[in-house]
Hints:
The chain is mostly helical.
Amino acid sequence: xxxxxxxxxxxxxxxxxxxxxxxxxxxxxxxxxxxxxxxxxxxxxxxxxxxxxxxxxxxxxxxxxxxxxxxxxxxxxxxxxxxxxxxxxxxxxxxxxxxxxxxxxxxxxxxxxxxxxxxxxxxxxxxxxxxxxxxxxxxxxxxxxxxxxxxxxx
Length: 154
Ligand SMILES: [Zn+2]
């Protein structure tokens, strides 16, 4: 028997739900395998704890009260999983709206800053000497000038 199948059958062994052949091969594995023996002892300890805890009777009318509570829960069901006072719900909604508004405003400020930066760059570059270059190197005139300069240098 492999450890994996042994561990699957272990709680059934404790509950006495195994057929005699299964029980025998599992018990043999537990004797031979240290890890499974340890796990078996732990499971036995937990099982003993639960059986030692004993059973307590619920107070009279407990299940009726639970069911009645469930019915009222279902009626007041909303997007909020737990019952929250109305003013808190409103506060949450208000907070969410405030966050969205702050987001929109700060987003606009960012975009405005980028625009003004771009404008400043445009003005700056209009003052640079490149703007007064009579023939930019990648234009047709620039290519012609390059060509003639190369010829003149010879
Ligand atoms: Zn094992």
